[in-house]
Every structure is written in structure tokens, then in C-alpha cells.
């Protein structure tokens, strides 16, 4: 059975591990590093969060670890539960199950997380981006008469970017767009500050377009351990102000089924775990 790995924030409970009975000796920062090292060997991690135990419990910490892959989370749970790992006493590890039937809207990954996920599955040289168009649409007006008391309309820096993510080995191209607008106060902005802010807005537009391009791709991990890529065109409504800029942007077809690899396993859920609220299981 194939597993789907989207370029989205992993909020599913079967991709989430709760780790408890962590020692109170190390700092939270040291535990974060130890947990990341121990669990990242099973698959790419989205996040590792360490929290102190409640005041009514014994001193120590617990952690919430999120994987992009449910199979990786299952392998980690089986391998690490009741093991000492990096401390003298064993830790307990459980997968989560939701006890509320709530539909969560998928949240897009930011551009740096998208690149991290792409590097993991496709390799650092397995993909690239090509900027098709990068244009400034800023609404900056000069005041002709400095003595005029007529106020200027609020000004802003605005950049539009269109690019495509290219996966040569998968014969796949995915277009993306980004439009970023930031208000600016002409009185407070000096020349250097203006240039820095302009560069920042330009960079944000590129990052937004890159994230948008990755959202249309779906990593399919096959039962054999190889991977395929599926291209899913977005049906999002585009801002009409940049419709003219998008007129020449071509949707490039994608051939979805190409190869790579990881193992497959069935997974089980042992206790209830919400996204932000956790119910600890009975301790054995």
C-alpha cells in the first residue's frame, strides 16, 4: 500500500510521537538535541518540541515529535519504546490517535521546509528552481511639491514572482506564484533601510512562489520502497491584480511515476493525542 507525503505541515496523529519519562538532569535544549539525533535516523523530522512535566508530576520532561511519514513514525515507536536511548532509564514512546473527529485544513510548508523535504526524497541535485518572472509592482509616488499639505496615499513595496520547480529524473515541472506586499512609512525609511526592505520583499516573493510550486507536488512512497511524484494543479483563486502578470505562465505537464526508495510497514495507534492537548496513557 502506497504512502502519500505532501508538502504540508504534518498534523496527522499517526505522524506524531509522544515521548515521556525523560530525565530531569539535562536541559531542555540538550534533550532536544538528543531526541533529534535519536529519532531522525528513522526518517525526516518536521519538529521536536520539549516540555517540562506538569507541576503535579515528578520532575522531568516530555516531548512531541512530528515526522513527515507515518511509516517512519511507526518504525521509531517500535524501535525506541522502553529503550534507554541517551539516558540511564528507559523512555516510553507512543503513537497518537485522535479522539475527536475533526477535519483539519492542510497547512502549506514554508519554502525552507519544502526544500528540506525535497532534498531528503529527491536528493540535493535531484531538483532545481527556475525563475520565470520577477517584477516589482510597488506603489511609490513622489511628492512634487514638498511644501504641499496634501497627504500622500499609503505606500507599499510589492513584488510578484513566477517560477517553476523542475524534477529532471521524474520528467516533472511544477509552476508557482508569489505576491508579497509590505507597507512602508516614507518618513521613517532612509535610503539604506529602503533598499534592505526592498530586497527582503523581493526574497519573500520568491520564497512564496517556491512554496506554492511545491504544494502542487505529492510524494508517493510505493510498497516496494521506491517513490513516485504526482503533480496536482492548484485550483486556488489568483489575485486579480496580478492576473495580467500570470497571463503567460504555462502549466507544464508532469509524468508522475518514477522511482526512489524506503520501507513500508503497517502502523498501530496506542493512545489519544491531540495537536495541542495530550492525554497520557496509564503508566505500566
TrEMBL record:
Pfam families the record matches: DSRM_RDM1 (PF25517), RRM_1 (PF00076)
Statement: the UniProt record of this protein carries the keyword Cell cycle: no
CDD domains registered for this protein in UniProt: RRM_RDM1
Domain RRM stretches: 15-98
Cellular localisation: Cytoplasm; Nucleus, Nucleolus
Predominant location: cytoplasm
GO cellular component: cytosol; nucleolus
InterPro entries membership: DSRM_RDM1, Nucleotide-bd_a/b_plait_sf, RBD_domain_sf, RDM1, RDM1_RRM, RRM_dom
Molecular function as annotated in GO: DNA binding; RNA binding
Alphabetically ordered keywords of this record: Cytoplasm, DNA-binding, Nucleus, RNA-binding
Subunit structure comment from the entry: Homodimer.
Protein name, per record: RAD52 motif-containing protein 1
Taxonomic lineage of the native organism: Eukaryota, Metazoa, Chordata, Craniata, Vertebrata
Gene name linked to the record: RDM1
